């Protein structure tokens, strides 16, 4: 059996029938909403110690958290905003997810007019929470009711939570230039600063890790990082045997410190060119 299939079989052979250990809540950044004004809901995930959930692309094993919305007429939901991931272990395999608490944020836009004094929104959330065993859940309904007001009103009890995880969202940084080349079973990613006066020295960034958002890179294999000359960074990224894509990979590179010398994101988002 191929490693990927073996890993999947291992996960599902360990699925538990016991109560799901993951705490999942639907929360709102605003305590009141207004017609036509976008607000943000969050799917708040809190696994117990020793357990994890998965990022939007889990890597070689796992299942990403997903949501289906049941919204009032005229309301629309944007895509999930995912905080930067970290490596998680499922048996001996390295995947992409969250070892601790996280908040998956979703902007919601109401219609230009709302005829009711309150609205009820429902998220049907599916997830996989894994640790000593894996606990799946499918389309679990989470509901929140919010009053309608002339203007949005921020909830001071929830704002710190949203601010904390908004700071963890990956961001593109025009101060760095990314170049990709292919060498047999690897993609070579070279990062060069456009303005070395702004960017942090490569040796000061700490540990670096590329997280694949499109499955081109094998999440389980070692990534070799070479720093220099100067502030240049070279990452040797092992190709996934399942990927036939020939475009530049899409993903996130995390560092221990911000990519610029001032306080900016520690997660660098790489999008298609």
UniProtKB/TrEMBL annotation:
InterPro entries: DsbDN. Transmembrane segments: none annotated. Keywords: Signal. Pfam families: DsbD_N. It comes from the Bacteria. Residues 219-256 are annotated as: Disordered. Residues 24-137 form the Thiol:disulfide interchange protein DsbD N-terminal domain. The keyword Signal applies. Residues 1-18 form the signal peptide. The keyword Signal applies. This is Protein-disulfide reductase DsbD family protein.
């Amino acid at each position: 059996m191929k490693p990927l299939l073996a890993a999947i079989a291992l996960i599902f052979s360990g699925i538990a029938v016991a109560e799901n250990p993951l705490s999942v809540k639907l929360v709102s950044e605003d305590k009141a909403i207004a017609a036509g004004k976008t607000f943000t809901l969050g799917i708040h995930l809190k696994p117990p110690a020793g357990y994890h959930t998965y990022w939007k692309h889990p890597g070689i094993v796992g299942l990403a958290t997903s949501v289906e919305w049941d919204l009032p007429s005229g309301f629309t939901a944007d895509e999930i905003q995912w905080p930067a991931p970290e490596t998680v272990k499922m048996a001996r395999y390295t995947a992409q997810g969250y070892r601790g608490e996280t908040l998956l944020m979703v902007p919601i836009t109401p219609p230009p007019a709302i005829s009711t004094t309150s609205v009820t929104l429902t998220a049907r959330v599916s997830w996989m929470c894994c640790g000593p065993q894996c606990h799946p859940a499918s389309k679990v309904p989470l509901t929140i009711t919010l009053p309608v007001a002339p203007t949005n009103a921020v909830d001071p009890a929830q704002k710190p939570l949203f601010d904390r995880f908004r700071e963890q969202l990956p961001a593109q940084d025009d101060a760095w230039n990314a170049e990709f080349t292919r060498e047999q079973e690897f993609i070579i990613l070279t990062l060069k600063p456009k303005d070395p006066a702004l960017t942090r020295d490569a040796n000061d960034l700490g540990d670096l890790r590329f997280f694949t958002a499109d499955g081109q890179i094998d999440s389980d294999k070692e990534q070799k990082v070479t720093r220099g000359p100067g502030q240049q960074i070279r990452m040797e990224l092992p190709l996934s045997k399942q990927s036939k894509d020939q475009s530049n990979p899409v993903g996130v590179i995390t560092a221990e410190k911000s990519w610029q010398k001032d306080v900016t994101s520690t997660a660098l988002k790489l999008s298609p060119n």
